[in-house]
Design a protein that fits this description.
Blueprint: E1 12-13, H1 17-44, H2 55-58, H3 60-76, E2 80-81, H4 83-112, H5 114-134, H6 142-153, H7 157-182
Parallel strand pairs: 1-2
Protein name: DUF4199 domain-containing protein
Keywords: Membrane, Transmembrane, Transmembrane helix
InterPro entries: DUF4199
């Protein structure tokens, strides 16, 4: 005689709101501080602390998001956390990391001074001009090309912080949604 088939346990447990906030704070703060320390380290070693090398630390944010969601699931075992709690801890982690990273960008920009910001503008301008030269398929009028150059020349610390915030947030949210759904199981 065959053994009876057991239905999988699909109970959803109510996770205390404090657990969601605590995990988001722990992982968001940690990932955000790593981003800031990385930018400061780049600046202190003579690299552009605002440049493309930032991405190396920003890639930690999606991992922190997934780790916070994984620990939330572990805290809810043998049941599983609700979708709202699972997504919430991931989104809060990403938001906190992005906010701390953006504030760190502002602090570093003011601390390093205008020469560092001007150097960053020059590097971005060089990248934009190289892309304009190397990409003949992108048909852009001379007016559009000039507008791109002017935007780079008018770049402010606020623009840099906004860009940093959006980069970190998007990187975190890219994994927050699918991991929030699938790590519940």
């Amino acid at each position: 005689m065959a053994a009876p088939i057991r239905e999988p346990d699909t109970r959803v447990v109510q996770v205390p709101a404090g657990a969601v906030k605590q995990l988001a704070l722990r992982f968001g703060l940690g990932a955000g501080l790593v981003c800031v320390v990385w930018m400061v380290g780049l600046q202190l070693t003579g690299s552009n602390g605002f440049g493309p090398k930032q991405i190396l630390a920003q890639l930690l944010v999606p991992l922190a998001v997934v780790a916070s969601q994984w620990l939330l699931r572990k805290a809810a075992q043998p049941n599983k956390p609700g979708l709202g709690a699972s997504l919430g801890v991931g989104v809060l982690t990403a938001l906190l990391a992005a906010s701390i990273s953006a504030v760190g960008t502002v602090g570093l920009a003011y601390g390093a001074g205008e020469p560092a910001v001007a150097r960053h503008r020059a590097e971005v301008l060089e990248i934009v001009q190289a892309q304009q030269r190397e990409n003949p398929k992108a048909v852009a009028s001379p007016a559009v090309r000039q507008q791109q150059v002017e935007q780079v020349q008018r770049m402010t610390i606020g623009n840099m912080a906004t860009s940093n915030f959006l980069q970190v947030l998007v990187l975190g949210l890219v994994l927050a949604v699918p991991a929030g759904i699938f790590l519940r199981e």
